[in-house]
Design a protein that fits this description.
single chain, 184 residues, mainly alpha, two-stranded antiparallel sheet, two-stranded antiparallel ribbon
């Protein structure tokens, strides 16, 4: 995927997240991009590592800064106690109009991720993204309780009950994402 295609996919994801009720802070974008890349195999090629609030990509953080500098995204200040959120710009809208094939190819996965995660808060996104990461590491065939225990081990503030719920949701998402038919 070339740089322009990445810009198109990321800005469309953010637009769809906003449409689905997301706050669109950096943490929201980090987690939903991780899902887009990992769960639906969109080849964004960001490296993610387990970090303070779940999977995090320093490359993606830098890309968001670049997209702001290039005026594809803007940072909008929100009232206290909430932090700023990202919004797309007219400049990014024009770019997405020019990349119709890329939009058509990735529209299904983007809509899937935004629909299932757009209205989630950062706590739930942390639990779900960590559950997906652990599922990727241990394998989908690994017992749900083993994956939940691992989540609780690496993130002790996530209760075992919440970890079990997150694994169950991830298993459901994996099944649903498998039915996505990639556009050619």
């Amino acid at each position: 995927m070339n740089n322009s295609q990445k810009v198109v996919v990321l800005t469309e994801l953010i637009e769809q997240m906003l449409n689905c009720g997301s706050w669109c802070g950096e943490t929201h974008i980090q987690k939903e991009t991780y899902f887009l890349q990992t769960l639906t195999d969109v080849p964004l090629e960001f490296k993610f590592a387990l970090y303070k609030h779940g999977p995090y990509s320093f490359e993606l953080r830098d890309k968001l800064t670049e997209l702001r500098a290039d005026e594809f995204l803007e940072l909008v200040r929100r009232p206290r106690p909430y932090g700023p959120s990202y919004e797309t710009t007219e400049h990014s809208n024009r770019l997405r109009m020019r990349f119709k094939k890329t939009m058509a190819k990735y529209r299904g996965p983007i809509e899937f991720v935004a629909k299932h995660l757009g209205n989630k808060g950062v706590v739930e996104l942390e639990q779900l993204s960590t559950a997906l990461l652990v599922t990727e590491q241990l394998g989908r065939n690994s017992a749900a309780n083993k994956r939940a225990e691992h989540i609780h081990h690496v993130k002790p503030h996530v209760s075992l009950h919440d970890a079990i719920n997150a694994v169950s949701v991830i298993d459901d998402y994996v099944d649903k994402a498998a039915t996505l038919v990639p556009a050619s």
